[in-house]
Amino acid sequence: MTKVLASLPVGERVGIAFSGGLDTSVAVAWMLENGAVPYTYTADLGQYDEPDVASVPGRAAAYGEDVRRRLERARSVDMGMYFAACDRRRYLAAALEVALASVDVLLTPVNTCTPPRRADPDHITAPDGTRQPFRDFIMGYTVPQNLAGVPSVTIRAGTDEMALPCGVQLTAARGQELAALRLAEILDRELGSATPR
């Protein structure tokens, strides 16, 4: 049975298995905010996707200013904000489920701009000529699928005005990974003759 704590012992040490993800980061912030003294524990459980767990803390400097700023901002997230975000995620997942109920896939762009240059990978030149964060032009097209937990596939669909490749994204209903992959393969094959490689 799951037990959700509504209060904590003020001034006492409370242990928490800490992954460094959003959930445990918010939990630690909540513990501090409510007077507990969190003691975090991170274990090397042989995660297949993380060959060097010991190096994770030292990688913070490599995240870049954008990610570092977001991690710092996460410290101000309280439990109410976290639960509200969870509600919005559930609403988004339900809305995507309704949208996908009558179609095999949704076909959407991956972004609306030319990719950034290698010299400035976090920014693009917006249509109005201003320098803008690249993620502002891409996140709205890719984050909904991630939050809703639905499969999506990106394929090349042509080139932009600068002759750089651009893509489209096929999003399928939860559990329909094979449908997304099959339709992406068909579309890629059909576009292949018209798309220079």
What would your notes on this structure say?
- By secondary structure, this protein is α+β, with helices and mostly antiparallel strands.
- It has five helices and seven strands; from the N terminus they run E-H-E-H-H-E-E-E-H-E-E-H.
- It folds into two domains: 13-77, 3-Layer(aba) Sandwich (Rossmann fold), CATH 3.40.50; 102-192, no CATH class.
- The chain has a three-stranded antiparallel β-sheet with strand order 3-7-6, with helices on one face. A two-stranded parallel ribbon has the order 1-2.
- Strand 4 (123-125) and strand 5 (131-133) form a beta hairpin.
Question: How is this fold's topology laid out?
Answer:
Layout: E1 13-17, H1 22-33, E2 37-41, H2 64-74, H3 79-100, E3 106-109, E4 123-125, E5 131-133, H4 134-148, E6 152-159, E7 165-171, H5 177-192
Parallel strand pairs: 1-2
Antiparallel strand pairs: 3-7, 4-5, 6-7
Explain briefly what this protein structure is:
This protein is an alpha+beta fold. The chain has five helices and seven strands, in the order E-H-E-H-H-E-E-E-H-E-E-H. Helix 1 links the parallel strand 1 and strand 2.
